[in-house]
């Protein structure tokens, strides 16, 4: 395999582990009992796996830092170090720092190698305060691996064999010669002499458990057993080969040095993602030999009733390996975890296929052209009135629509991908502000176009930080107002009328309309005698350079941010509404179309022009009552319905027909009517950008190409509904430029 490809795999896996580490650290303050233990173990495993994998590529800077990080985490696991907010913050910084090292390795990020090194030194100094005196990172790591998990008791039991020699940094060889060794011409002492050529026999204990009484002894039989403390740099297979000629007549157990446990775990963690049996993994990492694997497989088959029948009756292979004393339980546990990861990865690979985004965009563009071509065919068919061909084309159009919907679904992704970054943001900003703030997330499963997910992150970041800085009051002020000391910021997403609505809400003090208006007058944004509604005043905070902050901080006060949010949202054909109740809080509501590619539309006509309304926003169509020429609203079954005339709004030439129609549309819980000349019905609209010349035209969100080749404008329902509401209150409709 190409080493560069392997390195890229390490980088991807390291980033996934770091994200998991962050998620666990953000939750750890609220966990107790077994959940707390599981979280700490998961954090340790993430750091340990990254260290082991980095060691394979000789990335000593990553290995050295994660060694120290492991040492601190091991003290947390053993209960020697309590988890405090300060420690969690430091561990989060360490996670970010390892991420910076990974980014530097990948050639991305904005930090230089010198900056990373300097930060490395600062963090190591802080970690040293939490380290146990005299405990090296390697020792802490080995201790952590050896004393964790469901096999911890079995580990102690195995190490007790042979006077505790297994716990040393030497190999432990348990050698039980068979009865016929001497008869077969083998000299037991020759094996010990050979061991001396590949290492040093530090100590040896002789066991007499199988020695019969003198009267029953056979002088040609061997009854001796040995427990050997063996120091050597050789691997397990080489040591086992010393007993090659007596393997069939003896019982041999070779346990690696205790210090190698962490290395074996690292090797297991670095194995490929392809699913492997536990025995194969242990053989590949060198902690189990082929002969030992064959032996435990035979034991497993015999335990299943002979013949190796498959089924639940077979005891787990890992259990047999531990019971036979062949491999340390911590290593077997690591192999079992790796096997589970491989199975999960395989399942994910079977369920999903990665496709290059450019290829998917090209496919959607082709389907868009197919939709336009299909609309052209329908026009020709209507003129020809060929019944059989029309029926066949109807089936084809239905299939095109299904292909369109299915392809667009490929571009849809949960908004939770964006929401997942905010728990860390809220925690860090709250600590910086000295506030106690809780984040609540709902609707994370709501989906929208992948391209929007990538672009909406920064606007949401501005809104969340502003809510924490300006919205949530200080704890003493909240208590004085009869509120709980901790504030709440909520992120919510839901679908409505073919759009996705994303809300950022807080339970803070709300917006001060009087103060905002005064500031706007001072800056010349509005006239001193302007009569504005609270909703209009709130929109002023979205103007460039507007700020009510009394002092400039790292988070706010420079008047930069909210206007950027507005422009970014509008670039996605969305809107930003603000609701606020003094003393209770503020809600920022972003409304975006679900997709930027193809929509179901409702086609209407005014004069010789054609317009498209998003079908999901259309409620009903009615005929405009006679005598409504001078009115801007009508009575819809007892409900006041403000409406706009497209002919007047867009200055369409010509006289209006005697009979006009009203298309009732809904947006963000409000209804409005749009007066048009003709109703053409449903259609599929391939959204085309307007271009920079028309980007500022209000009431228009895009364009599309009709089947006859003409261009139709797609109406912006949000702006039209808001405009109709303003006209209904006697305010002028924003001019179309």
Strand order of the largest sheet: 6-8-9-11-10
Low-confidence stretches: 133-167, 307-312, 732-737
What is the CA-atom radius of gyration, in angstroms? 36 Å
Characterize the largest beta sheet: strand count, sense, and whether it forms a barrel: 5 strands, mixed
- The class by helix and strand makeup works out as alpha+beta
Helix content: 40-55%
Distance between the termini: 60 Å
Could you give the count of β-strands? 21
What portion of the residues fall into strands of 2 or more residues? 15-25%
Separate helix tally: 25
Mean pLDDT: 78
Structural features, described:
- With 737 residues, this protein is α+β, with helices and mostly antiparallel strands.
- 46% of the residues lie in helices and 19% in strands.
- The strands form five sheets. Strands 6-8-9-11-10 form a five-stranded mixed sheet. Strands 19-12-13-21-20 form a five-stranded mixed sheet. Strands 14-17-18-16-15 form a five-stranded mixed sheet.
- Helix 1 packs antiparallel against helix 4, helix 2 (33-56) runs antiparallel to helix 3 (60-77) and helix 15 (357-384) packs antiparallel against helix 16 (387-411).
- The model is unreliable at 133-167, 307-312 and 732-737 (pLDDT under 50).
């Amino acid at each position: 395999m190409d080493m560069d490809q392997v390195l890229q795999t390490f980088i991807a896996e390291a980033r996934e582990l770091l994200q998991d580490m962050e998620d666990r650290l953000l939750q750890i303050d609220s966990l107790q009992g077994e959940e707390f233990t599981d979280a700490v173990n998961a954090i340790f495993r993430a750091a340990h796996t990254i260290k082991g994998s980095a060691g394979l590529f000789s990335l000593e800077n990553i290995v050295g830092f994660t060694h120290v990080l492991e040492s601190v985490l091991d003290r947390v696991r053993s209960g020697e170090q309590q988890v405090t907010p300060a420690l969690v913050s430091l561990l989060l910084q360490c996670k970010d720092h390892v991420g910076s090292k990974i980014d530097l390795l990948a050639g991305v990020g904005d930090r230089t190698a010198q900056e990373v090194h300097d930060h490395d030194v600062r963090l190591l100094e802080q970690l040293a305060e939490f380290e146990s005196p005299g405990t090296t990172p390697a020792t802490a790591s080995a201790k952590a691996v050896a004393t964790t998990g469901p096999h911890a008791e079995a580990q102690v039991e195995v190490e007790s064999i042979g006077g505790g020699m297994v716990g040393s940094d030497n190999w432990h060889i348990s050698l039980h010669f068979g009865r016929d060794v001497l008869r077969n011409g083998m000299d037991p002492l020759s094996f010990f002499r050979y061991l001396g050529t590949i290492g040093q026999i530090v100590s040896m204990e002789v066991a007499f458990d199988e020695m019969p009484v003198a009267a029953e002894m056979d002088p040609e039989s061997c009854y001796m057993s040995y427990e050997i403390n063996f120091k050597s740099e050789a691997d397990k297979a080489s040591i086992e080969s010393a007993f090659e000629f007596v393997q069939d007549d003896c019982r041999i157990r070779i346990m690696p040095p205790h210090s190698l446990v962490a290395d074996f775990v690292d090797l297991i963690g670095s194995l490929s993602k392809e699913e492997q049996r536990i025995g194969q993994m242990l053989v590949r990492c060198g902690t189990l030999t082929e002969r030992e694997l064959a032996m435990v497989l035979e034991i497993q088959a015999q335990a299943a009733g002979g013949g190796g029948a498959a089924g639940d009756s077979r005891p787990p292979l890992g259990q047999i390996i531990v019971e036979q004393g062949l491999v340390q339980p911590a290593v077997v546990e690591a192999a079992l975890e790796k096997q589970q990861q491989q199975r999960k990865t395989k399942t994910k690979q079977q369920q999903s296929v990665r496709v290059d985004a450019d290829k998917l965009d090209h496919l959607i563009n082709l389907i868009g052209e197919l939709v336009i071509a299909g609309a052209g065919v329908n026009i020709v068919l209507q003129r020809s009135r060929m019944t059989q061909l029309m029926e066949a084309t109807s089936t084809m159009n239905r299939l095109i629509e299904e292909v369109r919907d299915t392809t667009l679904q490929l571009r849809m992704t949960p908004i939770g991908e964006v929401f997942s970054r905010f728990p860390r943001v809220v925690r860090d900003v709250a600590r910086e502000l000295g506030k106690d703030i809780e984040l609540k997330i709902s609707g994370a499963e709501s989906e929208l176009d992948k391209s929007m997910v990538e672009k909406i992150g920064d606007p949401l970041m501005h809104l969340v930080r502003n809510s924490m800085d300006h919205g949530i009051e200080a704890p003493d002020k909240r208590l004085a107002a009869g509120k709980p000391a901790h504030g709440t910021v909520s992120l919510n997403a839901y679908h409505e009328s073919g759009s996705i609505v994303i809300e950022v809400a807080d339970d803070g003090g709300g917006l001060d309309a009087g103060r905002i208006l005064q500031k706007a007058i001072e800056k010349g944004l509005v006239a001193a005698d302007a009569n504005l509604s609270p909703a209009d005043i709130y929109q002023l905070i979205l103007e460039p350079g507007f700020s009510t902050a009394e002092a400039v901080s790292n988070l706010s006060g420079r008047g930069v941010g909210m206007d950027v949010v507005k422009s970014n949202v509008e670039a996605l054909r969305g809107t930003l509404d603000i609701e606020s109740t003094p003393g209770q809080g503020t809600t920022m509501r972003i409304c975006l179309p679900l997709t930027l590619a193809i929509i179901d539309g409702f086609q209407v006509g005014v004069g010789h022009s054609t317009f498209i309304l998003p079908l999901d926003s259309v409620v009903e169509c009615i005929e405009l009552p006679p005598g409504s020429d001078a009115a801007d609203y009508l009575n819809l079954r007892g409900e006041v319905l403000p409406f706009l005339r497209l002919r007047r709004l867009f200055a369409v030439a010509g006289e209006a027909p005697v009979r006009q129609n009203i298309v009732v549309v809904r947006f963000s819980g409000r209804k409005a009517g749009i007066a048009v000349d003709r109703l053409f019905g449903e259609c599929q609209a391939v959204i085309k950008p307007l271009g920079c010349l028309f980007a500022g035209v209000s009431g228009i969100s895009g364009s599309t190409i009709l089947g006859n080749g003409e261009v139709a404008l797609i109406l912006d329902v949000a702006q039209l509904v808001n405009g109709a509401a303003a006209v209904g209150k006697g305010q002028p409709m924003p001019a179309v430029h």
